[in-house]
């Protein structure tokens, strides 16, 4: 048996060495190690080998199989290297890589930054408050009675604990007056939550920007001048702005602010962009009751407040027709703002 095994090994190694491509290499493997391969057949003959020779023949078979397997692996690597080199031929690996696409700020972020920067230039500082609020800060201190529709379970997300997701950023007014003494001049951008049916103009989570200015002699003229200036900076100096009398529990008098929208292909129309008014003395009373230091005595201080919808402002600014585009993260939409 010794000679045939050595002959098979020598023959196989020669075939492997001669194989010029993966196909020829596989043929060589099958010819020797396949089901009907030469070495396989000799291995099957082991049972006829006399007992005394079995160990020696077995060892020889192992040596042959190991040598052939190793040669196959080595040749396979060598062929792969050649294939890789051929694939790279003509490619200049020193060329700079293709640029990755850059991300960009979301339109809402752009608008919020712009709104904040205009108001900061006017001296408003950033303030914040929790999104999970209690009824005192969201409603009671803001002179909103128990039976006001905004407090309805159908409109507001309540937790079992009695806390709620704030329905507006106006709660930050209360938190600020609790922790700071006048003069106060703050803005509070942030999320607000309502159980609204989702459609092209409503989401159940949206973004507001609240403002509050309290001092000893703040007037309605200050309110009007500040917000007119703001909208002229945001939408351009020719933008028409109007104050329409309205009702909010926490301001008196109260107004809604409209700007005239000139959308392409449409007749110009007024769009509501914010609510505002002079802080109602009842709000100062509520703050005074919890502070007990008279800092917000309604006979000593006056102030104005406003709240605007940032999503709505972004929609107006860029002519976005569906608010859902702002949360869908469709790159085809977002990259227009890059
Ligand atoms: N909180 C009001 C809303 O969500 C907006 C608002 C109106 C805020 C008048 C104010 C204000 O500060 O004075 O609809």
Number of strands: 9
Straight-line distance between termini? 78 Å
Radius of gyration, whole Å:
40 Å
Q: Output the structural class.
A: alpha+beta
The succession of helices and strands, N to C, reads HHHHHEEHEHEEHEEEHEHHH
- What are the low-pLDDT stretches, counting only 5+ consecutive residues below 50? none
Strands ordered across the widest β-sheet: 1-4-5-9-8-7-6
What characteristics describe this protein?
338 residues; alpha+beta; BirA Bifunctional Protein, domain 2; 2 domains; 7-stranded mixed sheet; two-stranded antiparallel ribbon; 12 helices; 9 strands; 43% helix; elongated; binds 3,4-dihydroxyphenylalanine
What does this structure look like?
The protein has 338 residues and is an alpha+beta fold. The chain folds into 2 domains: 2-88; 107-337, Bira Bifunctional Protein, Domain 2 (BirA Bifunctional Protein, domain 2), CATH 3.30.930. The chain is 43% helix and 19% strand. It has 12 helices and 9 strands. A hairpin with a 7-residue loop joins strand 7 (251-261) and strand 8. The radius of gyration is 40 Å and the shape is elongated. The two termini are 78 Å apart. The relative contact order is 0.11. 3,4-dihydroxyphenylalanine binds at residues 168, 170, 210, 248, 251, 275-277, 305-307.
